[in-house]
């Protein structure tokens, strides 16, 4: 296997606070990597740096062998990244199906002229149904997102991210806020997406689910690399246990 | 139709173009603008100057459209880093800046404005037909835009920029496009206004005018073409038909703006769809 995503020497500072300090992370093609660590470890900041939402002090980022360090967010997304938010952010003026259809039409909105000359939404609406079906929320397709429960919105986030046909799916706490039954089901769905060949990087606090579905763990603590490797082996490391349990 | 009615209808037509143009920026793309009248003014002054230099009407109107669109794009570029209330303040600054600059320029007539703008050379009903033609074109353009993927992308930008960005949308390009299109069409409205009155002064294009246009968009229902057109017709005609309102025009607009924001943020369009839903339900 080869590294599809490489983040080297990532340092991020917010004012005087160092959020990430010389962090390295490597993601192999097709693997399911979980990025874990206590609150404030810098996990979301690392994902936001990879997508270009946060500007690092230093970093060398590459995607599929291509340097993306200085590219804007939308250019990185075009090269194959997709991100879901920790706090769900559906487009409120759109229905569930339209949310996904908009993402599925990413080629049409890539350039201004083609977005102006393209009118038909039918192919994307049809494609959106495939992703809604994959996430098991097709029955909500015509509903306004403001009236939907969190469990559905979490799935909608994943469906929308998949609709842009990424090479890597970056999931920021997809299970947060869900009850154990919902979390287990969504974890199964995410795992099945991974088994179809999608490379996934997931930030998650639900350790039992993380250990159940991940191929590999990468642990951050206080903005630094703490450990990485096989889930069971990583969780057995004393420094990882100390970071989580405080002893 | 008497001359008075023709003149009134021409004014309504110009305001419809203006309100529809702001609706592209504020309604579709979600970018608040409190300085839209400046671009209306840029179009009017461009047309006034060029027509006095002997340019034919179709060229002056085209120039008003282009100059306002180009300056709108430049200001849009400068405004890309700010959004929401900060954008409102920046665009408000544009409104004051425009009047401030024009007042100081002798070649723009300073405080006295520009008078003696050549006639459009058409009969009054003919000019009304031209204005109505442009109003219909701008409505059709706006309607098409809403149905296109550009309109879909504008919806996404207006809803949540951050999410739209992580779905790969070039937010800056879409915002700039909205600014360019909206300000260019406002420039066209300004050009039509210059031929309509044949006399322009800076204060016509000041902050109060910007708020007036915004009132039309907000009362109609931000983003709704139908609502904005109806609100524009009502707000322009109301002070004409009820003379006593004319003295309190600004007060009326202010109260309407406040009431819509407080009680019916979706404006007339929202109220209308509520009635339809109630009837169906």
Helices and strands, with pairings:
The complex is a heterodimer of chains A (247) and B (281).
Chain A: E1 3-14, E2 17-28, E3 32-36, H1 43-51, E4 58-63, E5 66-67, H2 73-78, E6 81-84, H3 96-104, H4 112-117, H5 122-134, H6 150-163, E7 168-172, H7 180-195, E8 199-203, H8 207-213, E9 216-221, E10 224-229, H9 231-235, H10 238-245
Parallel strand pairs in A: 3-8, 3-9, 6-7, 7-8
Antiparallel strand pairs in A: 1-2, 1-4, 4-5, 9-10
Chain B: H1 3-28, H2 36-52, H3 57-79, H4 84-104, E1 114-115, H5 124-147, H6 149-159, H7 161-166, H8 171-197, E2 199-200, H9 207-220, H10 225-241, H11 243-246, H12 249-263, H13 267-280
Antiparallel strand pairs in B: 1-2
Helix pairs in contact in B: 1-5, 1-8, 1-9, 1-10, 2-3, 2-4, 2-8, 3-8, 5-6, 6-8, 9-10, 9-12, 10-13
Q: Write the element-wise H/E pattern of chain B from the N-terminal end onward.
A: HHHHEHHHHEHHHHH
The fraction of residues in strands of chain A falls at 25-35%
Structural class of chain A: alpha/beta
Residue share in helices of chain B?
A: over 70%
Quaternary structure: heterodimer
Strand order of the largest sheet of chain B: 1-2
**Largest two-chain interface:** A-B, 33 and 26 residues
Helix content of chain A: 25-40%
Low-confidence stretches of chain B: none
Instruction: From the 3D structure, determine the CATH topology of chain B.
Output: ABC transporter involved in vitamin B12 uptake, BtuC
Tally of helical runs of chain B: 13
State the major sheet of chain B: 2 strands, antiparallel
Shape of chain A: globular
CATH topology of the largest domain in chain A: Rossmann fold
Mean pLDDT of chain B: 89
């Amino acid at each position: 296997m080869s590294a599809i995503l490489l983040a080297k020497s990532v340092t991020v500072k917010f004012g005087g606070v160092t959020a990430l300090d010389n962090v390295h992370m490597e993601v192999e093609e097709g693997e399911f990597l979980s990025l874990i660590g206590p609150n404030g470890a810098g996990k979301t900041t690392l994902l936001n740096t990879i997508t270009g939402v946060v500007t690092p002090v230093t970093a060398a980022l590459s995607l599929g062998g291509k340097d993306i360090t200085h590219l804007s967010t939308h250019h990185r997304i075009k090269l194959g990244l997709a991100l879901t938010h920790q706090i769900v952010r559906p487009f409120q003026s759109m229905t569930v199906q339209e949310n996904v259809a908009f993402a599925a039409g990413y080629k049409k909105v890539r350039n201004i002229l083609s977005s102006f000359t393209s009118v038909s939404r039918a192919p994307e609406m049809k494609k959106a149904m495939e992703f809604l079906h994959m996430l098991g929320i097709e029955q909500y397709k015509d509903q306004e997102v403001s009236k939907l429960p969190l469990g559905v919105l979490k799935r909608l986030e994943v469906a929308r991210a998949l609709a842009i046909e990424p090479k890597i799916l970056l999931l920021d706490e997809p299970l947060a806020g869900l009850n154990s039954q919902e979390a287990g089901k969504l974890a199964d769905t995410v795992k099945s997406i991974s088994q179809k060949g999608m490379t996934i990087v997931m930030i998650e606090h639900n350790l039992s689910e993380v250990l159940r579905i991940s191929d590999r763990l990468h642990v951050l603590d206080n903005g630094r690399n703490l450990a990485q490797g096989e889930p069971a082996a990583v969780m057995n490391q004393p420094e990882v246990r100390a970071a989580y349990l405080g002893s | 139709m008497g001359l008075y009615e023709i003149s009134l209808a021409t004014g309504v037509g110009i305001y419809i173009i203006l309100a529809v143009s702001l609706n592209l920026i504020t309604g579709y793309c979600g970018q608040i603008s409190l300085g839209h009248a400046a671009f209306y003014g840029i179009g009017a002054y461009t047309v006034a100057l060029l027509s006095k230099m002997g340019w034919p009407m179709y060229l002056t109107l085209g120039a008003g459209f282009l100059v306002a669109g180009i300056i709108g794009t430049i200001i849009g570029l400068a405004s890309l880093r700010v959004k929401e209330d900060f954008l409102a303040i920046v665009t408000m600054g544009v409104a004051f800046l425009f009047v401030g600059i024009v007042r100081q320029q002798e070649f723009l007539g300073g405080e006295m404005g520009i008078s003696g703008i050549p006639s459009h050379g058409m009969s009054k009903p003919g000019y009304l037909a031209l204005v109505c033609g442009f109003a219909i074109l701008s409505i059709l353009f706006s309607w098409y835009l809403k149905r296109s993927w550009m309109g879909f992308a504008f919806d996404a930008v207006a809803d949540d920029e951050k999410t739209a960005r992580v779905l790969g949308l070039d937010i800056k390009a879409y915002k700039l496009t909205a600014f360019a299109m909206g300000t260019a069409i406002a420039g066209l409205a300004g050009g039509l206004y210059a031929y309509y009155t044949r006399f322009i002064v800076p204060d016509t294009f000041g902050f109060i005018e910007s708020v007036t246009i915004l009132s039309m968009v907000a009362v109609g229902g931000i983003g709704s073409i139908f609502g904005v057109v109806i609100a524009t017709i009502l707000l322009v005609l109301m002070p004409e038909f009820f003379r006593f309102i004319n003295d309190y025009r600004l007060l009326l607009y202010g109260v309407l703006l406040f009431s819509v924001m407080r009680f019916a943020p979706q404006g007339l369009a929202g109220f209308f769809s509520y009635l339809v839903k109630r009837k169906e339900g």
